[in-house]
Amino acid sequence: MILFYLLISTMPLTQHPLWGHFVGELTVTKYLGLACVLIAAAYLGFRRGRLRLFATAQAFLFWSLMAWITFSYFYQHAPIPWQLSPMFTYVSVMVLFFITLILVDSPQRLLYCALSAIASVAIASLYVLREWQKYHGAFSEFRPGWVVGDSNYFSVSVLICVPLALLYGLSAHRPRWQRWFCLACLTVTLPAMILGASRGGFLGLIAVVAFVLMRSRYGKKALFLVAALVLPLALVASVSPLERLLHPNASDQAAAQDRLDLWAAGLNMIKAHPLNGIGLGNFKFQVENYEHTADKVDFIAHNAYLEYASELGIPAALLFVGMIAAAFFRLGRERKRLRSLPDDTLFLACGGLQAGLIGYCLSVCFVSGEFQKLFWLAMFLSMAIPPLADEALARVTSPSMAPSLPDEGLEPSGMLPELFPVMQCSEAGPVVLAGELDRDTEAAPDHNDQIQMDAHTPSLALEWLKGEAGAPPIAQRSGDPNSFEAHPLAALLQPEELEAEEEQAEQWSDDCLTTSWGGDREKLA
After folding, report:
1. For residue 140, is pLDDT > 60?
2. What mean pLDDT do residues 463-470 have?
3. Widest Cα–Cα separation across the chain
4. Which of 15, 43, 243, 502 is paired with 311 by a 20 to 30 Å CA distance?
5. How many other CB atoms sit within 10 Å of the CB of residue 137?
6. Using 50, 70 and 90 to split pLDDT, how confident is the model at 426?
7. Which residue, among 215, 190, 487, has the nearest Cα to 339 in the 3D structure?
8. Is 236 helix (H, G, I), strand (E, B) or coil?
9. Is residue 175's pLDDT more than 60?
10. Does position 55 have pLDDT exceeding 80, yes or no?
11. Contact at 8 Å (CB) between 36 and 4?
């Protein structure tokens, strides 16, 4: 896995002197990818769980798109060498699909993939900052981006990773080193993106922050953090996306006009070849034939959707958009399912990848970003999450996971199907067994907090202990006959709910009660 994480960390460094260096007909990064292929093939026999390559709709749409692209390449492709053609890039993408889904077989591995992606844009940002420091004095309109290939493409990669860094960095339930790591990466990534001065990237960043603000309880903190890192530099830098949007110079206006001309030519291509397009990679070579202006622009489309539709036909563009939409909505479904788990690794990944796709979809309206490797990694991680979510939820709800209880008067309760909060009483008092956690709006109790509950029955101390995800919701008697040690799933309960029950504790009798905060109380026979 170390080599796979290293491969991820090199993805934004397209012109790096080491990773982008050609040895024969392949770059060093390609050789690293071949090593990962061998590792994935060897790991197949040791993989945890059943390999489910087509468990999601986005996987089916992805392979439909790849089949269409392959047909287009052999039918009519651009007159360029194989190793430099778009088809070679798509072959690498298909290989990455198998590597990712084979190796990412646990939430921890998915987490480290996300952290590697966050680190990759942070490392790339250091190169961007160094280029700006070295050359901005000599060129007043300098936009750094040599090592990362182009500042616009770099901004697309940043938008994929920034929401993951925000959610993992601001979550109170992540280990401290993970939070500090993600926040440290943001402190270099966001300024580098602003100095890259991508207008489409800036609009995508606004969309990302807005989505996080609406969908996460960390949204306000994320908004404050991004504003603190972005706005001062955006307001004072001589070249910034805000400056280029509000006060475009002659170069900015010319670039905008070129895009309009390219888009008009792309629409003419679609009108002439709506089904099969003009062929993979042919846009730049044939664009002059479809332009109706005096000044011909010989360039790529600067719009991923338009480039798909013009080169490969409208069906390919629909497959591309459908794949992104399927990934977005499936991540939303999994996010709701994972909300109750004590380990928020997969839950935060779903929200972060959703926000990243929002930023990507907006930014590629202004740049041909369909070849960005971190986008395809995010897409494949969205395919890996549903099987991991099924396994995590199965471990929690499986009755076979329950250990035997000491003979202390408590009976195993099992796991309620919908994880509603349960309060069970014994001779020593009420015992919290499980509760549903709404990670969007409520804060969960910190581990190791002590919560005392006074009642007519003997006092009860609940110690919040962090344990393995999936432990059954069964309370066990500790050394003190008047205290109980809660299993890890007791940490799903919010402190506010405990305080409310503490105020009502004096009304409880010695009878055993089952309490559901979403329903009615019932006496047990």
Report:
1. yes
2. 36
3. 90
4. 15
5. 9
6. very low
7. 215
8. helix
9. yes
10. yes
11. yes
